[in-house]
Amino acid sequence: xxxxxxxxxxxxxxxxxxxxxxxxxxxxxxxxxxxxxxxxxxxxxxxxxxxxxxxxxxxxxxxxxxxxxxxxxxxxxxxxxxxxxxxxxxxxxxxxxxxxxxxxxxxxxxxxxxxxxxxxxxxxxxxxxxxxxxxxxxxxxxxxxxxxxxxxxxxxxxxxxxxxxxxxxxxxxxxxxxxxxxxxxxxxxxxxxxxxxxxxxxxxxxxxxxxxxxxxxxxxxxxxxxxxxxxxx
Length: 233
Ligand SMILES: [Fe+2]
Ligand SMILES: [Fe+2]
Fold this sequence. Notes:
Blueprint: H1 3-37, H2 42-67, H3 89-117, H4 122-152, H5 158-169, H6 184-189, H7 195-216, H8 222-232
Protein backbone atom coordinates (compact mmCIF):
# COMPACT_ATOMS: atom_id res chain seq x y z
CA UNK A 1 0.00 0.00 0.00
CA UNK A 2 1.38 3.42 -0.88
CA UNK A 3 1.98 6.03 1.79
CA UNK A 4 -0.75 8.58 0.88
CA UNK A 5 -3.36 5.80 0.82
CA UNK A 6 -2.19 4.45 4.17
CA UNK A 7 -2.37 7.96 5.60
CA UNK A 8 -5.89 8.55 4.25
CA UNK A 9 -7.12 5.29 5.76
CA UNK A 10 -5.40 5.95 9.09
CA UNK A 11 -6.97 9.40 9.24
CA UNK A 12 -10.41 7.96 8.51
CA UNK A 13 -10.14 5.42 11.35
CA UNK A 14 -8.81 8.13 13.70
CA UNK A 15 -11.83 10.26 12.79
CA UNK A 16 -14.11 7.30 13.52
CA UNK A 17 -12.43 6.89 16.90
CA UNK A 18 -13.41 10.45 17.80
CA UNK A 19 -16.97 9.90 16.59
CA UNK A 20 -17.28 6.74 18.72
CA UNK A 21 -15.85 8.54 21.77
CA UNK A 22 -18.28 11.40 21.32
CA UNK A 23 -21.18 8.95 21.05
CA UNK A 24 -20.04 7.25 24.28
CA UNK A 25 -20.04 10.58 26.11
CA UNK A 26 -23.40 11.57 24.67
CA UNK A 27 -25.16 8.31 25.57
CA UNK A 28 -23.65 8.41 29.08
CA UNK A 29 -25.28 11.85 29.51
CA UNK A 30 -28.63 11.04 27.87
CA UNK A 31 -29.46 7.99 30.02
CA UNK A 32 -29.60 9.79 33.38
CA UNK A 33 -31.39 12.75 31.74
CA UNK A 34 -34.18 10.48 30.52
CA UNK A 35 -34.32 8.83 33.96
CA UNK A 36 -34.91 12.23 35.56
CA UNK A 37 -38.46 12.38 34.12
CA UNK A 38 -39.13 8.83 32.92
CA UNK A 39 -37.32 6.50 35.30
CA UNK A 40 -39.33 3.49 34.09
CA UNK A 41 -38.12 3.89 30.50
CA UNK A 42 -36.20 0.87 29.20
CA UNK A 43 -34.15 3.36 27.17
CA UNK A 44 -32.28 4.43 30.33
CA UNK A 45 -30.51 1.08 30.65
CA UNK A 46 -30.07 0.83 26.86
CA UNK A 47 -28.27 4.20 26.86
CA UNK A 48 -25.91 3.01 29.56
CA UNK A 49 -25.18 -0.16 27.63
CA UNK A 50 -24.73 1.84 24.41
CA UNK A 51 -22.20 4.13 26.11
CA UNK A 52 -20.17 1.03 26.96
CA UNK A 53 -20.49 -0.28 23.38
CA UNK A 54 -19.22 3.02 21.96
CA UNK A 55 -16.22 2.99 24.30
CA UNK A 56 -15.39 -0.47 22.97
CA UNK A 57 -15.89 0.67 19.36
CA UNK A 58 -13.58 3.64 20.03
CA UNK A 59 -10.87 1.28 21.27
CA UNK A 60 -11.21 -0.95 18.17
CA UNK A 61 -11.06 2.06 15.85
CA UNK A 62 -8.05 3.56 17.66
CA UNK A 63 -6.27 0.22 17.36
CA UNK A 64 -6.97 0.11 13.61
CA UNK A 65 -5.93 3.74 13.14
CA UNK A 66 -2.65 2.84 14.83
CA UNK A 67 -2.10 -0.06 12.43
CA UNK A 68 -2.34 2.42 9.55
CA UNK A 69 0.12 4.71 11.29
CA UNK A 70 -2.25 7.26 12.79
CA UNK A 71 -1.77 7.33 16.55
CA UNK A 72 -4.97 8.57 18.17
CA UNK A 73 -4.42 10.63 21.30
CA UNK A 74 -6.11 9.87 24.58
CA UNK A 75 -8.30 12.98 24.61
CA UNK A 76 -12.05 12.42 24.69
CA UNK A 77 -14.25 15.00 23.03
CA UNK A 78 -16.96 16.51 25.20
CA UNK A 79 -20.39 15.72 23.82
CA UNK A 80 -22.24 18.94 24.49
CA UNK A 81 -25.90 19.04 23.48
CA UNK A 82 -26.40 19.50 19.76
CA UNK A 83 -29.99 20.69 20.21
CA UNK A 84 -30.76 24.27 19.17
CA UNK A 85 -31.45 26.85 21.87
CA UNK A 86 -35.08 27.50 22.68
CA UNK A 87 -36.24 23.92 23.10
CA UNK A 88 -37.49 22.73 26.48
CA UNK A 89 -35.08 20.23 28.11
CA UNK A 90 -37.22 17.22 27.27
CA UNK A 91 -37.62 18.36 23.66
CA UNK A 92 -33.88 19.07 23.40
CA UNK A 93 -33.17 15.55 24.55
CA UNK A 94 -35.57 14.11 21.99
CA UNK A 95 -33.79 16.20 19.35
CA UNK A 96 -30.49 14.56 20.30
CA UNK A 97 -31.95 11.06 20.34
CA UNK A 98 -33.60 11.46 16.93
CA UNK A 99 -30.44 12.99 15.43
CA UNK A 100 -27.94 10.59 16.99
CA UNK A 101 -29.90 7.34 17.10
CA UNK A 102 -32.81 7.38 14.63
CA UNK A 103 -30.72 9.13 11.97
CA UNK A 104 -27.00 8.65 12.65
CA UNK A 105 -27.08 5.10 14.04
CA UNK A 106 -29.52 3.93 11.34
CA UNK A 107 -27.25 5.41 8.66
CA UNK A 108 -24.26 3.83 10.35
CA UNK A 109 -25.86 0.38 10.19
CA UNK A 110 -26.31 0.77 6.42
CA UNK A 111 -22.74 2.00 5.93
CA UNK A 112 -21.18 -0.78 7.98
CA UNK A 113 -23.35 -3.45 6.31
CA UNK A 114 -22.19 -2.19 2.91
CA UNK A 115 -18.57 -2.26 3.99
CA UNK A 116 -18.94 -5.80 5.30
CA UNK A 117 -20.46 -6.93 1.98
CA UNK A 118 -17.33 -5.60 0.25
CA UNK A 119 -15.23 -8.31 1.90
CA UNK A 120 -12.73 -6.22 3.81
CA UNK A 121 -9.46 -7.48 5.28
CA UNK A 122 -9.93 -9.88 8.22
CA UNK A 123 -8.97 -7.39 10.97
CA UNK A 124 -11.14 -4.66 9.49
CA UNK A 125 -13.93 -7.16 9.03
CA UNK A 126 -13.81 -8.20 12.69
CA UNK A 127 -14.03 -4.57 13.87
CA UNK A 128 -16.88 -3.77 11.46
CA UNK A 129 -18.73 -6.88 12.56
CA UNK A 130 -18.47 -5.92 16.23
CA UNK A 131 -19.67 -2.40 15.46
CA UNK A 132 -22.54 -3.55 13.21
CA UNK A 133 -24.28 -5.72 15.77
CA UNK A 134 -24.29 -2.91 18.36
CA UNK A 135 -25.33 -0.10 16.03
CA UNK A 136 -28.49 -1.97 15.13
CA UNK A 137 -29.45 -1.91 18.83
CA UNK A 138 -28.53 1.79 19.14
CA UNK A 139 -30.80 2.67 16.23
CA UNK A 140 -33.68 0.74 17.77
CA UNK A 141 -33.05 2.49 21.08
CA UNK A 142 -33.76 5.81 19.35
CA UNK A 143 -36.99 4.59 17.79
CA UNK A 144 -38.05 3.16 21.17
CA UNK A 145 -37.49 6.54 22.84
CA UNK A 146 -39.38 8.34 20.10
CA UNK A 147 -42.29 5.90 20.47
CA UNK A 148 -42.39 6.48 24.22
CA UNK A 149 -42.20 10.28 23.92
CA UNK A 150 -45.01 10.25 21.35
CA UNK A 151 -47.31 9.15 24.15
CA UNK A 152 -45.95 11.69 26.67
CA UNK A 153 -45.36 14.99 24.81
CA UNK A 154 -46.18 16.77 21.55
CA UNK A 155 -43.40 15.63 19.19
CA UNK A 156 -44.58 17.57 16.12
CA UNK A 157 -41.75 20.13 16.63
CA UNK A 158 -39.27 17.48 15.40
CA UNK A 159 -40.41 17.96 11.78
CA UNK A 160 -38.91 21.40 11.28
CA UNK A 161 -35.59 20.37 12.83
CA UNK A 162 -34.90 17.26 10.72
CA UNK A 163 -33.00 19.30 8.07
CA UNK A 164 -30.64 20.65 10.75
CA UNK A 165 -30.19 17.14 12.10
CA UNK A 166 -29.30 15.89 8.62
CA UNK A 167 -26.86 18.73 8.02
CA UNK A 168 -25.25 17.88 11.35
CA UNK A 169 -24.98 14.22 10.39
CA UNK A 170 -23.32 14.45 6.99
CA UNK A 171 -20.11 16.28 6.26
CA UNK A 172 -20.10 19.19 3.81
CA UNK A 173 -18.35 17.06 1.22
CA UNK A 174 -21.02 14.38 0.84
CA UNK A 175 -23.06 16.27 -1.77
CA UNK A 176 -20.12 18.10 -3.35
CA UNK A 177 -19.23 17.22 -6.95
CA UNK A 178 -17.12 14.06 -6.80
CA UNK A 179 -13.40 14.59 -7.00
CA UNK A 180 -11.19 11.80 -8.25
CA UNK A 181 -10.62 9.33 -5.48
CA UNK A 182 -8.06 6.58 -5.26
CA UNK A 183 -9.01 3.01 -6.02
CA UNK A 184 -12.46 2.43 -4.57
CA UNK A 185 -11.85 -1.29 -4.08
CA UNK A 186 -8.63 -0.65 -2.17
CA UNK A 187 -10.50 1.81 0.07
CA UNK A 188 -13.26 -0.70 0.71
CA UNK A 189 -10.78 -3.41 1.70
CA UNK A 190 -9.72 -1.18 4.57
CA UNK A 191 -13.20 -0.20 5.65
CA UNK A 192 -13.60 3.15 3.92
CA UNK A 193 -16.41 4.06 1.52
CA UNK A 194 -15.71 6.30 -1.45
CA UNK A 195 -17.78 9.51 -1.36
CA UNK A 196 -20.13 8.69 -4.25
CA UNK A 197 -20.98 5.33 -2.71
CA UNK A 198 -21.39 6.87 0.74
CA UNK A 199 -23.83 9.41 -0.70
CA UNK A 200 -25.83 6.73 -2.49
CA UNK A 201 -26.19 4.70 0.71
CA UNK A 202 -26.99 7.75 2.83
CA UNK A 203 -29.78 8.84 0.47
CA UNK A 204 -31.24 5.38 0.05
CA UNK A 205 -31.31 4.73 3.81
CA UNK A 206 -32.87 8.12 4.40
CA UNK A 207 -35.61 7.53 1.83
CA UNK A 208 -36.29 3.89 2.65
CA UNK A 209 -35.76 3.70 6.42
CA UNK A 210 -35.32 6.98 8.30
CA UNK A 211 -38.03 9.17 6.76
CA UNK A 212 -40.69 6.41 6.67
CA UNK A 213 -39.74 5.67 10.29
CA UNK A 214 -40.35 9.28 11.32
CA UNK A 215 -43.62 9.33 9.38
CA UNK A 216 -44.85 6.34 11.35
CA UNK A 217 -44.86 8.62 14.37
CA UNK A 218 -46.78 11.31 12.50
CA UNK A 219 -43.73 13.50 11.93
CA UNK A 220 -44.10 15.54 8.74
CA UNK A 221 -41.02 14.87 6.60
CA UNK A 222 -41.70 17.57 3.97
CA UNK A 223 -38.88 19.83 5.30
CA UNK A 224 -36.48 16.88 5.29
CA UNK A 225 -37.48 15.92 1.74
CA UNK A 226 -36.95 19.51 0.60
CA UNK A 227 -33.51 19.47 2.23
CA UNK A 228 -32.66 16.31 0.30
CA UNK A 229 -34.05 17.60 -3.00
CA UNK A 230 -31.99 20.78 -2.72
CA UNK A 231 -28.81 18.69 -2.40
CA UNK A 232 -29.45 15.56 -4.36
CA UNK A 233 -31.73 16.87 -7.12
FE1 LIG B 1 -20.32 2.93 17.51
FE1 LIG C 1 -23.66 3.37 18.05
